[in-house]
Amino acid sequence: MTIDLKNLSPKELQALIASANAQMEAAHAQHVSAVRAKVDALLKNADLTLDQVYPRRGGKSNKGPKAAAAPKYRNPENATQTWSGRGKRPAWFVAALRKKGVTADSLLITISAAKALPAKKAVKKVARRAPAKRAGTKK
């Protein structure tokens, strides 16, 4: 079957693309189901399970949701906002770190008395620039 694509209108090309995509998805689904049937037959003949052949990390199964991590950091301005330290940093955490003298250690929920004081940051000395000369003035 040869189709001359140069003679097709844009509508006909779109219909052809849609038809080809549908056919490709159907062929892929059938291929997956055929491979799955072969794997199931092999496992049944060997009297094994997929978990025995491909054990999951740590031997744990993926049954049920993971337990929520305990909060590690607390927002000093709003005690109801906490973060476990996992995943993307929340906006309040990033904003707090931008403040002078605030470190991640100072936002920890379990802070020892030694860490309660904010860490001192080194102060950079900035060289002063000479005032810019104005155009048109003579010295």
Which SSEs are present, and which pair or pack?
Layout: H1 10-46, H2 50-53, E1 73-74, E2 82-83, H3 91-98
Antiparallel strand pairs: 1-2
Characterization of this structure:
With 139 residues, the protein is an all-alpha fold. Among the domains are: 12-53, no CATH class; 68-118, no CATH class. 35% of the residues lie in helices and 3% in strands. It has three helices and two strands, in the order ααββα. It has helices at 10-46, 50-53, 91-98, and strands spanning 73-74, 82-83. Strands 1-2 form a two-stranded antiparallel ribbon.
Summary of the model, kept short:
This protein has helices spanning 10-46, 50-53, 91-98; strands at 73-74, 82-83.
Q: Average pLDDT, to the nearest integer?
A: 81
Biggest sheet, open or closed, and with what strands and sense? 2 strands, antiparallel
**Rough shape?**
flat
Count of separate DSSP helical elements: 3
| Amino- and carboxy-terminal Cα gap | 89 Å
Instruction: Determine Rg (CA atoms, Å).
Output: 32 Å
Order of helices and strands: HHEEH
Q: Which features does this protein show?
A:
139 residues, mainly alpha, two-stranded antiparallel sheet, 3 helices, 2 strands, flat
